[in-house]
Specification:
The complex is a heterodimer of chains A (about 100) and B (about 180). With about 100 residues, chain A is mainly alpha-helical. In chain A, about 75% of the residues lie in helices and about 0% in strands. Chain A has three helices and no strands. Chain A is elongated. The termini of chain B are far apart. The chains are: A mainly alpha (about 100), B mainly alpha (about 180).
């Protein structure tokens, strides 16, 4: 049995769905950040899978490279926010976040 | 990497990736979630290998598993076990959202299943290697590549700005303490 690019598309869709679901359903800030990472990874997988069809260029892989860098920046900022949030609330439950509410 | 070996590798890595993603989202323990995320990232690196993206597989392991995940684990260790999170799917909104989302996703997957055998050309020598991707990055995408450096610098400055100094709550607590004594 041979797997084409469509199989990778199915897999990436599934992983993105799991990540989006986790982001909405969970209340722990750290797990929500990890869900964002799952979604970014699904997009990366799709970029690289479709780059496999166009073997003359590496646009998809370059883009996945940029996405990885942005994910690193996002993780660093998100975790800094998590620490600042924890210093205020002594917890990382996002249900408690209301300081920007007027 | 075509043929039965590639198919088996894809099947193993894909099921591992989905299982670890589910474990990341559903695990109650944050540290366990991080470990599941590690397994997920590793299986994705395996999938990149089946797609002839050797450099990206290496970068995935170095940057994600080596840097981002370690950062996650550091922060989890720093703030300790949180606990007390209400069980998910308690309210109507997450439940409705989850049901709708899973149904939509199932439809999308069903629509894709018939097309899994999309034609894949054989990869030329060096596709996805350091030289080819390096040429693509430094010749065709040189400006975005340099902008990555700016992005990371700004992110690092932002992290310093967010975490340094006292929060308003801490400052108020310290201002109050001398009066109480």
């Amino acid at each position: 049995m041979e797997f084409g690019i469509g199989a990778y598309a199915v897999l990436a869709t599934t992983i993105f769905g799991i990540g989006a679901l986790g982001f909405v359903v969970r209340r722990n800030f750290l797990v929500q950040l990890m869900s964002v990472e799952l979604m970014l990874n699904a997009v990366n997988l799709l970029f690289i899978a479709f780059n496999r069809i166009y073997v003359e260029q590496h646009g998809g892989q370059s883009f996945a490279f940029v996405v990885i860098a942005v994910a690193a920046a996002e993780a660093a900022l998100g975790l800094a926010i998590a620490i600042a949030y924890h210093r205020i609330h002594r917890s990382v439950e996002t249900d408690l976040a209301d300081r920007l509410r007027h | 990497m075509t043929g039965s070996a590639g198919s088996w590798l894809f099947l193993v890595a894909a099921s591992l990736a989905v299982a670890c993603a589910l474990g990341t989202v559903l695990s109650r323990n944050t540290l366990r979630s991080a470990m599941f995320l590690l397994g997920h990232l590793g299986s994705l690196a395996m999938l990149y290998l089946t797609l002839h993206a050797e450099l990206l597989a290496a970068i995935q392991l170095l940057v994600y598993a080596g840097a981002i995940l370690v950062l996650f684990v550091f922060v989890i260790m720093l703030i300790g076990p949180s606990g007390g999170e209400p069980p998910p799917f308690r309210n109507a909104f997450p439940r409705t959202f989850a049901a709708t989302f899973v149904a939509t996703l199932g439809l999308a997957v069903l629509g894709l299943v018939g097309r899994t055998a999309m034609e894949v050309p054989s990869a030329p020598e060096g596709f996805g290697g350091v030289e080819a991707v390096g040429f693509a990055l430094f010749r065709d995408a040189a400006v975005p590549f340099e902008l990555i450096a700016v992005t990371l610098t700004v992110a690092a400055l932002g992290v310093v700005g967010i975490t340094r100094g006292k929060t308003a709550v801490e400052a108020a607590g310290e201002a109050k303490r001398p009066e109480a004594e």
